[in-house]
Specification:
This protein is an alpha/beta fold. The protein is 47% helix and 8% strand. It has 19 helices and five strands. A five-stranded parallel β-sheet has the order 3-2-1-4-5. The protein is globular and about 70 Å long. 42% of the residues are buried.
């Protein structure tokens, strides 16, 4: 068995710089063995071997490994259930402790509890740290200690509590890594996935975009959003770096970063939202759930040009502009009366920047059933949204170029759909109150 080590377990923090958990591991006084686990319980749910997200992770790991090689160390990459992987690791090394950064999703919390219990049975400490958020689970709460369920007071308290130390860079000294012969990480094909067209680049905020974020973020043809969703999702950029940049350059972007944390703490405190409406009365909605109409929505064949452009952009690239996400989500839930969970699951399958808390929170917002949702009677008119945000049809022409020649009739008339949605939603609330 090798000498005494502590393990650093990379998860949603795929970077060596400004990494709180890694910083703590390196300060432990023992050599740090860095590992990553391709979790089969997650990968087995991905049906398409051409998954850009897995490729993104893989390329980010290659980048980390190249950095580690400069310090005569290497990244140990495993494939399997984390609990089973750790059973193997402790037979190879004298593991004194495992360090990682905290995760807030229900399945991740369960995974960590299983791993922690196993390690403690073998007298191995398990330490997790706050890294992917500025404020942890219970750091921004109401005076009575209960979590906020409305964004505005949450954001106000968040801003009030924010101090420079909250977004100060975590300095790391990589000289304390476990020395090992440099190795290349396994190929994507070893895990059953294929190389994609994605090219990983070290992410950083773009000043030209962020400084004018409030002016241009709603116009999809301009494509003036940060494109840092995937980097924040997998931690290839630090939230502290983003918040520091936002404070200096654009308050509206800072508000969006606070929304991210708001939805994370909602998911942590109310894990039921994964499968149920935050507002229970909206689980009484009698969704139509027409499978044929759902498939037309998925394919971008609804006859509404901006909806179809958005879905085609998503299917082609794994990305959809933020304003268009709201339009297509509202259309599915309100115009077609299809359960928001169907749309949420489709986005989960397709979005490069898929993040459970944000995806769930935004879909519930669009459906009117979330903790701080748009009222149910707010129903986006796709035509009016087009006139306001894509009046020259540049976005539509890019992603739905044949819309003018298309013989696709609108899947439903706006006014008819609007009236139907109002009736169905009102009946659900009436039934709940009986």
């Amino acid at each position: 068995m090798e000498n005494k080590v502590v393990i650093y377990w990379f998860r949603r923090d795929l970077r060596t710089e400004d990494n709180k958990g890694l910083q703590q591991a390196l300060a432990s006084g023992l050599p740090v063995l860095p590992i990553f686990i391709f979790d089969t319980e997650i990968l087995d749910q991905l049906t398409d071997p051409y998954d850009r997200r897995v490729d993104y992770i893989h390329q980010a790991l290659i980048s980390i490994n190249e950095t580690l090689h400069k310090y005569q160390s290497t990244l140990q990459v495993y494939h399997g259930k984390p609990s089973e992987v750790f059973k193997k690791i402790i037979t190879q090394y004298q593991v004194q402790a495992v360090y990682c950064n905290r995760d807030y999703e229900p399945q991740s919390i369960k995974r960590d509890q299983i791993v922690q219990t196993f390690l403690e049975e073998h007298a191995i400490y398990f330490y997790d740290f706050k890294d992917q958020v500025i404020f942890d689970q219970n750091e921004i709460v109401k005076a009575d200690g209960l979590p906020y369920t409305v964004y505005t007071p949450y954001a106000k308290k968040w801003r009030t509590e924010l101090q420079p130390e909250h977004y100060t860079t975590a300095k790391t000294d990589l000289n304390n890594l476990y020395k090992a012969i440099p190795q290349e990480i396994p190929a994507l094909s070893d895990f059953g996935f294929k190389k994609t067209d994605l090219v990983f680049q070290k992410p950083e905020p773009d000043l030209e975009i962020i400084k004018d974020y409030a002016l241009y973020r709603d116009f999809p043809a301009l494509d003036r959003t940060s494109h840092l969703g995937i980097a924040l999702r997998f931690g290839t950029i630090s939230i502290r770096e983003c918040v520091s940049f936002a404070i200096k350059h654009n308050d509206t972007w800072l508000s969006e970063l606070i929304w991210r944390e708001f939805f994370m703490q909602i998911l942590y405190h109310f894990p039921k939202v994964v499968h149920h409406s935050f507002k229970v009365q909206y689980d009484y909605i009698q969704w139509r759930n027409n499978e044929e109409e759902f498939q037309l929505w998925c394919k971008g064949e609804t006859g509404y040009p901006i909806v179809d452009a958005g879905m085609r952009q998503l299917n082609s690239t794994g990305f959809m502009h933020n304003r268009v996400r709201m339009i297509v989500a509202s259309f599915l839930c309100k115009h077609l009366l299809i359960d928001w969970r169907w749309g949420e699951a489709y986005f989960a399958e397709k979005l490069l920047d898929y993040d459970l808390s944000a995806n769930n929170g935004n879909w519930q917002w669009a459906a009117g059933c979330g903790c701080d949702a748009a009222p149910y009677f707010r129903i986006f008119n796709p035509t009016a949204q087009t006139q306001k945000f894509d009046k020259n049809l540049q976005y539509i022409k890019k992603w739905n170029p044949d819309f003018q020649q298309s013989l696709l009739p609108p899947i439903v008339q706006h006014e008819t759909a609007r009236k139907r949605a109002l009736q169905v939603y009102k009946k659900a609330l009436d039934d709940f109150n009986k």
